[in-house]
Design goal:
The chain is built from 12 helices and 8 strands. By secondary structure, the protein is of the alpha/beta class. It has an 8-stranded mixed beta sheet, with helices on both faces. Helix 2 crosses helix 3 and helix 6 packs across helix 9. It is globular, with a radius of gyration of 18 Å. The termini are far apart.
């Protein structure tokens, strides 16, 4: 199993967060806990980690028990030498919930994390209350990508070693450029944010994990037909200026999920929960707080 950097005992952006490890079949999952109430899992996207939810903790933990993991292979979680397939991530969430004694929860995911959330709800519907999908990947993820770098990366995903090298040789400047493509307001991409993301990207095994994740990206398409059978109250939140997946992708996801509604966050990119936290938190709390019988489609895009 690959080594990881020394895991933090506290985050500088929220020293009060409880940090723990949960053991699953593939290794150890690093996660944060905050608040009391009904359980809510927050799942980051491709290349992401816990810090991307830093602006949700204070608002959401007032009403809910938040569990925020670094997905297996990412952040400060272990990086076992396995194939990082959609089914692996789905089973990781199942085992994670089992370890925490969480029988049911609402799932909030961004990008790949949103894809894991809706796929988990399809395979384990009895364990999901509600879904919040933030700029989430659709089943046909490869043709949906509009970002030039990511399209190139997907195009080379089956070439031996090339995807690995493309990630392993990233510089701070390249990490900064990637963040600027995900975040609409470039002024928010400070040196501190770049360093935070760059340092975690240098953990041994990260390039192998990310290359493997992309290699198996096509497999999420197997859930395309099943998505229409999803019967969980779902709020889809989308950044108005998402350069990776435009709002049209969110509209298509909305059309595919019967019990869903779409909310567009103005002035934000691929990570509205971080870039426009007040608007996004309000959209999340309003939806999660509704009685189940009212959590149905009917709110038009705005």
């Amino acid at each position: 199993m690959a080594n990881v950097r020394v895991r933090p005992t506290a985050f500088d952006w929220n020293p009060a967060l409880e940090l723990h490890l949960a053991g699953i079949d593939g290794g150890k999952i690093f996660y944060a806990v905050a608040g009391e109430g009904a359980p809510v899992l927050l799942l980051h996207g491709f290349g992401g980690e816990i810090w991307m939810w830093e602006r949700q903790v204070a608002a959401l933990s007032k009403r809910y028990r938040l569990y925020i993991p670094d997905l297996l292979g990412y952040g400060y979680s272990d990086r076992p030498k396995v194939d990082y397939t959609p089914s692996l991530f789905i089973d990781t969430i199942r085992q994670f919930m089992d370890q925490l004694g969480v029988s049911r929860a609402s799932l909030i995911g961004n990008s790949m994390g949103a894809g894991i959330a809706w796929a988990f709800a399809l395979t384990h519907p009895e364990r999901v209350d509600k879904l919040v999908l933030i700029d989430g990947i659709p089943p046909q993820v490869v043709p949906a990508v509009r970002n030039r770098f990511l399209r190139w990366f997907l195009a080379i995903r089956h070439v031996p070693l090339l995807p690995y090298l493309a990630i392993a040789l990233r510089t701070r400047r390249m990490v900064q450029a990637e963040l600027m493509e995900a975040i609409y307001d470039d002024r928010l991409v400070t040196d501190m944010v770049v360093e935070r993301q760059y340092e975690i990207s240098r953990v041994e095994g990260t390039a192998r994990v990310m290359a493997s994740t992309v290699r198996y990206a096509d497999e999420v398409a197997r859930y395309a037909d099943a998505l229409e059978t999803l019967r969980k109250p779902t709020r889809i939140i989308w950044g108005e200026h998402d350069e990776l997946f435009p709002v049209a992708v969110g509209s298509q996801l909305h059309a595919s999920i019967r019990d869903s509604e779409l909310v567009v966050i103005k002035g934000s990119g691929h990570m509205p929960m971080w870039e426009k936290p007040d608007e996004t938190n309000q959209a999340i709390l309003e939806f999660l707080g509704r009685p189940p019988e009212q959590s149905r489609a009917g709110i038009p895009p705005r």
